[in-house]
Design goal:
With 548 residues, this protein is an alpha/beta fold. It has 3 domains: 11-106 and 185-476, Glycosidases (TIM Barrel, Alpha-Beta Barrel), CATH 3.20.20; 115-169, Oligo-1,6-glucosidase, Domain 2 (Oligo-1,6-glucosidase, domain 2, Alpha-Beta Complex); 486-547, Golgi alpha-mannosidase II (Immunoglobulin-like). Helix content is 27%, strand content 13%. It contains 16 helices and 18 strands. The strands form 4 sheets. The chain has an 8-stranded parallel sheet. The chain has a 5-stranded antiparallel sheet with strand order 12-13-14-18-16. Helix 5 runs parallel beside helix 7 (244-256) and helix 8 (273-280) packs across helix 10 (300-317). It is globular and about 80 Å long. It starts with 15 loop residues before the first strand and ends with a strand. It binds alpha-D-glucopyranose (GLC) and calcium ion. Residues 66, 69, 106, 172, 208-209, 267, 328-329 line the site of alpha-D-glucopyranose (GLC).
């Protein structure tokens, strides 16, 4: 087989998928908020990057209580972001450029502005409208206490009282009431939504908190401490229940009624790779995010065992694995790898990060980016699909310089289990040029403040620099297509526990030096390196790709 033989495997198995956070990508009409026409205007950029698909975070009508993950209407575009016609234009523009389109489905909860929730509030207790959500009477003499002491993911009680005295459950923000997945109307409506977007040409779906939809709310409700102590083995009342796959079996039937079948990837933060595999099963969603590298330190033995385990899991289910280093929920990996301990998240550093008003001395910017480039190039050489988050191709760091009054993330305000700073720092609008009110993001400012150092990372700067992170990503993504003829990976022992080396199809090899002394080469044909070689050796925090 020559190394240019096209693969006949389905496109998603080894796709490079680029996540667009639409409000922060490109603003076409100058209102400071990124929009769908903005994506259209940057379609050539996406094509030149060499990705196979884009995944768009929610662009649906929303009050933005949680960055769009509070959806008020699942079958429409937020008027601030454009229209359905704009959406269609985007899909055809991307398809013309051979870029597939994946959209985000948020089935665990709606926005409190959704017409169903408004109807539930108006209709009162005992109504069919309330049955679509999770309403309960409170405890205490007058029902003045919540039905249980459950905590929301963003901090504070997970139960909220409404005017007539009943309480509703919200796993996330108060503005995100959980749906009742025992309700047939809820189930039917999501099938309609999946068909709606599939009919518009969408190629796949990313399923938000896919492991939380179904619940066992039999009384008496357990306490939070009891919930925390229960195993997450498929029978937990709230998390990763086996019966959620009955929902996805119905979805799968819809996906498979299209040609080609629509794809889906689960966002499921579950307890083990075995639990994750259930979502990746071909009768369920088909693929599931694997966040193991994202939560790992930059460390050779950890990377090696994560890669080995996940490839074995993928082989066992027939799915392909997925790799992620950054997304809209976590501190950017260039920054994580520049903090002590290496993968340290700002939350561990307390509030200094906020109070300093900028990255303090303990952030090693250069080292962090160098390690990020090495980790990403290792990731892009692995079998499976790779998810990239907008801005990482520029080597962007997390933005710390956002004052509390400029922040938007509900997690920040309620002191959540997420980073104490919240997630705004990775959601700052992209710098396209070195000047203007928003570095070319739009013509009239940006909805989150961009720091002055963004100019150094602008697309216009990196585009012209062959050594930039952007140039590195472009080159790697182009070369990567030649790696996709099979999904094999074979480890080559290096005799060092800080150096990983593996072989891929057609004589490709990848070496990553995680630290320590340079690793000497023996005259191999290096086609890509994340940092200059030192006398023919691969230096610390560097990845090289080698061809036969
Ligand atoms: C997912 C999203 C996150 C959102 C949450 C609630 O984890 O990635 O951004 O806040 O779900 O919808
Ligand atoms: Ca706009």
């Amino acid at each position: 087989m020559s190394d240019t033989t096209p693969t006949t495997a389905p496109w998603w198995r080894q796709a490079a998928v680029y996540q667009i956070y639409p409000r922060s990508f490109a603003d076409a009409n100058g209102d400071g908020i990124g929009d769908i026409p903005g994506v259209v205007s940057r379609a050539d950029y996406l094509q030149a990057l060499g990705i196979d698909a884009v995944w768009l975070s929610p662009f649906y009508p929303s009050e933005l209580a949680d960055g769009g993950y509070d959806v008020a209407d699942y079958r429409n575009v937020d008027p601030r972001l454009g229209t359905l016609d704009d959406f269609d234009e985007m899909v055809s523009g991307l398809h013309e450029r051979h870029i597939r389109v994946v959209v985000d489905i948020v089935p665990n909860h709606t926005s409190d502005q959704h017409e169903w929730f408004q109807e539930a509030l108006a209709a009162g207790r005992g109504s069919a409208a309330r049955e679509r959500y999770i309403f309960r009477e409170g405890q205490g003499e007058n029902g003045e206490l919540p039905p249980a002491d459950w905590q929301s993911v963003f901090g504070g009680s997970a139960w909220e009282r409404v005017a007539d005295g009943q309480w509703y459950f919200h796993r996330f923000a108060v503005e995100q009431p959980d749906l009742n997945w025992d309700n047939p109307e809820v189930r039917a409506d999501f099938l309609k939504t999946l068909r709606f977007w599939s009919d518009r040409g969408v190629d796949g779906f990313r399923i938000d908190v896919a492991h939380m939809l179904t619940k066992d709310l039999s009384e008496p409700l357990p306490s939070q401490a009891e919930l925390d102590a229960m195993p997450q083995d498929g029978n937990h009342p709230l998390i990763d229940r086996d019966d959620v796959h009955e929902v996805y079996a119905e979805w799968r039937a819809v996906f498979n009624s299209y040609d080609p079948p629509r794809t889906a990837v689960a966002e499921a933060w579950v307890s083990t790779p075995e639990r994750r595999a259930k979502y990746a099963h071909p009768d369920s969603l088909g693929q599931s995010f694997n966040f193991d590298l994202l939560v790992a330190d930059f460390d050779a033995p950890s990377f090696r065992s994560i890669i080995t385990d996940n490839l074995a899991q993928a082989a066992a289910t027939g799915s392909s694995t997925t790799w992620v280093l950054s997304n809209h929920d976590v501190t950017r990996h260039a920054t994580r790898y520049g903090l002590e301990p290496l993968n340290g998240r700002p939350v561990k550093q307390g509030t200094e990060w906020v109070e300093a008003g900028g990255p303090a001395d303990w952030l090693d910017r250069e080292g962090g980016l160098r390690r990020a480039r090495a980790a990403t190039m290792l990731m892009l050489a692995l079998p499976g699909s790779a998810y990239l988050y907008q801005g990482e191709e520029l080597g962007l760091h997390e933005v710390a310089e956002i004052t509390p009054d400029q922040r938007q993330d509900p997690g920040f305000f309620r002191g959540s289990e997420y980073d104490r700073l919240g997630r705004d720092g990775c959601r700052v609008p992209l710098p396209w040029t070195t000047e203007g009110s928003s570095f070319g993001f739009g013509t009239n400012g940006a909805h989150l403040p961009q720091p002055s150092w963004f100019a150094d990372y602008a697309v216009a700067v990196e585009d012209a620099d062959p050594d930039s992170t952007l140039s590195l990503y472009r080159k790697a993504l182009e070369l990567r297509h030649r790696l996709q003829t099979d999904e094999q990976l074979e480890w080559i022992e290096t005799g060092r526990d800080d150096v990983l080396r593996f072989r891929r199809p057609n004589g490709w090899e990848v070496i990553t030096v995680f630290g320590g002394e340079p690793f000497p080469l023996a005259g191999e044909n290096v086609v890509l390196t994340t940092a200059p070689l030192l006398n023919g050796a691969v230096p610390a925090d560097t990845t090289v790709w080698i061809t036969a």
